[in-house]
Structure formats: C-alpha cells, structure tokens
Amino acid sequence: MISGYAAMGKNQPLVPWQYKSRPLGPNDIEIKIDHCGICGSDIHTIDSGWGPTQYPVIVGHEIVGRVVAKGAEVQDHAIGDLVGVGAQVFSCQKPDCKNCRRGHDVQCSHAVYTYNKPYPDGERSKGGYADAVRVDANYAFSIPTAIDPREAAPLLCAGITVFTPMLHYKFKTGDRVGIVGIGGLGHLAVQFAKAFGVSVTAFTTSETKREECVKLGATQVVNLRDAEQSKTASQSLDYLIVTTNSPHTDWAQLISFMDVYGLIVLLAAPETELKLKPLSFLANNVGIVGSLIGGIKEVRAMLDFAAEHNVRPWIETLPMDQCNEGIQRVRDGKVRYRVVLSN
Ligand SMILES: [Zn+2]
Ligand SMILES: [Zn+2]
C-alpha cells in the first residue's frame, strides 16, 4: 500500500489516505519519495478548477526520490538512484505514434499525466504527496549531482514549463524577453532566460518583489499597475512569457509591450476564458502561442542546463504532513517562490 495525502472532494483539506499500488510493469519503477513541490496545478485539480476531478486524488508532480524497485526491462536506472518525476508519467513511445516519433511525447494521445488521469488499463494516476509512486521508467529522470534534491523538485514542472519554449524558440543573446508573473514559474523563467543570454524585463504587480527580480537576473522591472512604467515598456519585447494565473490579466496592456512580430507565450492556464481584442494583436503582427510542460528530451536538457548555469528555485520547505499549510501559503500568495514538501 502507498500512503499519501488525498483530497476527498472539492475544496476539502487533504487527509491521510492509502491506496493499493498499480502492478509494477516491465518498464516501471517504484520511487520512494523524498520531496515533492507544490505546483499551482495541484490546487486547480484539488478545486476541480479545470473541470471535474475524480476524487479521491493525490496531487503532486514535482517529485524527487530514490528507486526502490524496477521492472525486468528497465535499464536506465539502478536501485538506489536519485530520480525526479514531473507532470507526465507515461507515453506510448510506439513507432507508429506520430507525436512520440517526433519527440512530442507530451502530446501523445496515450499520454498519462502524473495525477487524476487514466492509464490505458483504466486506473487513475496518483501523484507525489505520498511516500511512494510507480511510474514508467522513461519519465524518471536522473538528477545531476550538482543539484540539491530539494531544489531539483520544482525544476521538474515549473522549471521545464518555462525552459521548453526558450529551447524551442532558440532564445539567444540580443533577444528582448519579458516575464509576467514572478512566482513559482516566473522566478525560474527570469533565471533561465538570463542564462540564455537575453535581456530580461520582469513584470510584476508587487512592488515588494522589485529587488528580488534584480537578484534573479532581471535587467528591468516594470510594475504593471504603474501606467508610467508600463508606457516605457511599450513595443520593447521580442518574447513575453506569461506565467500568471490571474483572471484579471489586462491582455491589451501585455500586447502593447510587443515589438512587431513579437511572440507571447502562455504557460499558465487561468480558470477563466481569455479576453482578447483581435485588432490589438493584428496591428503589430503579434503572435500568441501556448506551451505545455516538456518531453523526455527537453527535461533531460533542462536538468543539465540548470546544473551548468546554476539555475535553482528559491524554496521554502515543510514536512509532508503539513501539506495543507503549504497549500494555504500558495493560495495566499505568500510563497517565495516554491514550497517543497519533504518526507
Ligand atoms: Zn505543475
Ligand atoms: Zn505516443
């Protein structure tokens, strides 16, 4: 049996709960969990904010721990290895799968995300607020020795989410990049972008984060609530990475920061619809794209890049049994910048 903390219904606190682990398949491993970050997605899921959640649900998809069992066909990992798991735990990896074949395993039609999603056998995945988890070995990533295991946890969802578009759009020296929302994702986005050699403008609504943005590597900091500051950033960016979940985002304001042919990359999913005036982005040929986590290749590249360039989350740690306190701190916007729960 695996012991964890589950939400038994919408808006309810997490309670201790046990479940029988799925069978260990030939390409599966079992991980004894040491650490798990708290991601905004966990809270959307606990709240059924993105649609109905099937309860009970154990959330958590920034998992770090040790391999304690492995299937007969697993070659990449040995018992005792330190590994991390992000927001995905399975893709088919079949040669006739158009998306897996092209390295778009995130978009595999058989993809299983780390919690609240059905496996092909019908069982639903369960996440990392627990003492163990079983996953497909392809989705357990070796953690570079340079990275503290606690700090590795947030890299596996927040980190890969912000890194993937930077890799895909080939960020380079001279590019002008804005980051909106300096939180769990945004504080890593500033660091990764800086490490790609770009000029970073951090956009925040919290004046208290100004100094921290500079420490993280921002060249400029713009308070979105200050009309004068916002005006100075007009038409100044090639890319804008949007990590905020706020339903009150002023899209016309964000679009105004984009230079001709600039690209806005949406990484967070607010529970409300986006309100966009078509002409506002037509006028300067501005593009808006989304990006969802990252595939096997990208996660490996991200961990190496973070190790090499010293990109690390700023974390607060709590024991796993205080997961409800951690979640409340996230809801209250008090975290600087990621909570990591530890067993
Ligand atoms: Zn996440
Ligand atoms: Zn596939």
Automatic annotation (TrEMBL):
In this chain the Enoyl reductase (ER) domain maps to: 9-341
- The answer to keyword Oxidoreductase applying to this record is yes
- Required cofactors, per record? Zn(2+)
Position of the signal peptide: none
Gene3D superfamilies in UniProt: Medium-chain alcohol dehydrogenases, catalytic domain, NAD(P)-binding Rossmann-like Domain
What keywords are assigned to this protein? Metal-binding, Oxidoreductase, Zinc
Pfam families from the xrefs?
Answer: ADH_N, ADH_zinc_N
Q: Which GO terms describe its molecular function?
A: oxidoreductase activity, acting on the CH-OH group of donors, NAD or NADP as acceptor; zinc ion binding
State the family it belongs to: Belongs to the zinc-containing alcohol dehydrogenase family.
Name listed for the protein in its UniProt record: Putative mannitol dehydrogenase
Native species of this protein? Dimargaris cristalligena
